[in-house]
Amino acid sequence: MSLAARIYDRVVSLPQQAASEVLQFADFLAARYGKPEAAGSAQRQDAAAFYMRFQADLSSYRFDRDEANAR
To answer: How does pLDDT run along the chain (71 residues), one tens digit per residue?
Structure first.
């Protein structure tokens, strides 16, 4: 039996609150050992939504150093 299957067998019989704590602990360990994809996709979605409002199309804007320094 694989380790993941053994963990599942233990967690599936736990009450909902305890299983939720196991999941939170697993997320903590994933973040600690460099697995950001398991650390919380909700955080990534929140960050993406935050930065979405700052996106602007500047492809037609011509940057002028002298004009910028004059400001």
So the answer is: 899 899 999 999 999 999 999 999 988 888 888 755 554 677 777 888 888 888 877 778 777 888 888 87
Q: Give the pTM.
A: 0.45
- Calculate the CA dihedral of residues 40, 45, 46, 50 and round it to 10 degrees: 150
Q: Which ranges of the chain does DSSP label H, i.e. alpha helix?
A: 3-12, 16-32, 41-52, 65-70
Please state, as a whole number, how many other Cβ atoms lie within 10 Å of the Cβ of residue 30: 15
The angle at the Cα of 18, spanning 2 to 39, to the nearest 5 degrees, equals 65
- Say if CB 38 and CB 30 are below 8 A apart: yes
Whole-number CA gyration radius for the chain: 23
